[in-house]
Amino acid sequence: MRETTPFEKIDLHLIRVLHTVIAERSVSRAAVRLGMHQPAVSTALKRLRLLAGDPILVRSGSGMQPTDAALRMLAPTAAILQAAESLFTDARAFDPRSSTRSFRIAASDYLDPMFLPSVVAYLKREAPLCSVEIMALSHDSNYAEQLAHGLVDVVIGNWPQPPADLRMAQLFADDVVCLVSKNHPAARRGWSAQEWLEAEHIAPMPTHPGAKGVVDDALEAQGMRRHIAVRCAHFGLMPQMVASSLLVLTTGRQFCERYAAQLSLEILPCPVALPAMTYYQLWHDRTHHSSAGLWLREAFKNIALKL
């Protein structure tokens, strides 16, 4: 009788568990994402460790870290899952009314505050059985890697120069203005470029390691540097911070207009010439011809046109 090979002991479910555990670096978080009970994920991980001859996850401080072997498995497992997902769904036109797939979107929160709510409303109306995951673009996230490994379908944000190795389409552009409290001196008498540079600015955390942000990149290109007094990872909280202080928030007009209508805030022109903020959607070659991916990107484009 022929001996069973390790390969024949692996099913797609195990591959999904393997990929999720490595990506999440946590059995408990993987269980939540997979919709499984934690003991079931632990049992699957035990099988995977025996098959791989490797612990896959090891304890590091208060958390867990993937082994070198596990990190080498991340891209192949993503490719297997992507191929399995597209095996039948991409063989026919994507039907949003009957599809039960999951859409994973990573987006910055300094977009127009109405954009992502409009996206969710559209997806739940037009693709009611699909689940939607919206993830933040944090300063420590590697969105290019997430796209390459199938952890994210589309990334939405703005960059001075979008990554050349990713597919890209422009969604909308927005001119740059300043948001200040109605009690800010500049709201009464205006300001010069030098006064603006020396004012106390609030700015977001960088979207990825080494990034300065579009405003500071543009200033550096002109040989200027502003005084950033506060950095905050939660962009949606910044208008409230500005309203109760002398901080200055420099960002897109659409974002500022949504909050100026609700809080004691004033929108002022920026005394330094800055290029408009251009927002893009980015995706990887691996999903470029996916019928579901095409439908999702077209949805984003149509929503942006209506804002």
Molecular structure report:
The protein is of the alpha/beta class. It has three domains: 77 residues, Winged helix-like DNA-binding domain superfamily/Winged helix DNA-binding domain (Arc Repressor Mutant, subunit A, Orthogonal Bundle), CATH 1.10.10.10; 104 residues, D-Maltodextrin-Binding Protein, domain 2 (3-Layer(aba) Sandwich), CATH 3.40.190; 100 residues, D-Maltodextrin-Binding Protein, domain 2. It is built from twelve helices and twelve strands. A five-stranded mixed β-sheet has the order 4-3-5-12-6, with helices on one face. The protein has a five-stranded mixed β-sheet with strand order 9-8-10-7-11. The protein has a two-stranded antiparallel ribbon with strand order 1-2. The radius of gyration is 23 Å and the shape is elongated. The mean pLDDT is 88.
Helix proportion range = 40-55%
Mean pLDDT: 88
Supply the CATH class of the largest domain.
Alpha Beta
CATH topology of the largest domain: D-Maltodextrin-Binding Protein, domain 2
Q: Which features does this protein show?
A:
single chain; 307 residues; alpha/beta; Arc Repressor Mutant, subunit A; D-Maltodextrin-Binding Protein, domain 2; 12 helices; 21% strand
Quick recap of the structure?
The radius of gyration is 23 Å and the shape is elongated. The chain is α/β, with parallel strands linked by helices and 307 residues long.
